[in-house]
């Protein structure tokens, strides 16, 4: 196959994390001493906690985005696969 397989689409949780990461980081920095650094694990724990506290309606926004990206990925992957077998 000449072309590389497209990168798999992100999950709804990953889309949420990418959307909220900067806010969480800033929030944790405000709570801590200015000289203290924030660990990645602290950010991930807070993101996980926020994800779990989302309502169904709030989650649906990210789930819909993930579904759209998955459909787009499947179309691209199918096109690549189809082009490979028709040559």
TrEMBL record:
<feature type="domain" description="HMG box">
    <location>
        <begin position="6"/>
        <end position="81"/>
    </location>
</feature>
<keyword id="KW-0238">DNA-binding</keyword>
<dbReference type="InterPro" id="IPR036910">
    <property type="entry name" value="HMG_box_dom_sf"/>
</dbReference>
<dbReference type="GO" id="GO:0003677">
    <property type="term" value="F:DNA binding"/>
</dbReference>
<dbReference type="GO" id="GO:0006357">
    <property type="term" value="P:regulation of transcription by RNA polymerase II"/>
</dbReference>
<feature type="DNA-binding region" description="HMG box">
    <location>
        <begin position="6"/>
        <end position="81"/>
    </location>
</feature>
<dbReference type="InterPro" id="IPR050342">
    <property type="entry name" value="HMGB"/>
</dbReference>
<dbReference type="InterPro" id="IPR009071">
    <property type="entry name" value="HMG_box_dom"/>
</dbReference>
<protein>
    <submittedName>
        <fullName>High mobility group protein B4, putative</fullName>
    </submittedName>
</protein>
<dbReference type="GO" id="GO:0005634">
    <property type="term" value="C:nucleus"/>
</dbReference>
<keyword id="KW-0539">Nucleus</keyword>
<dbReference type="Pfam" id="PF09011">
    <property type="entry name" value="HMG_box_2"/>
</dbReference>
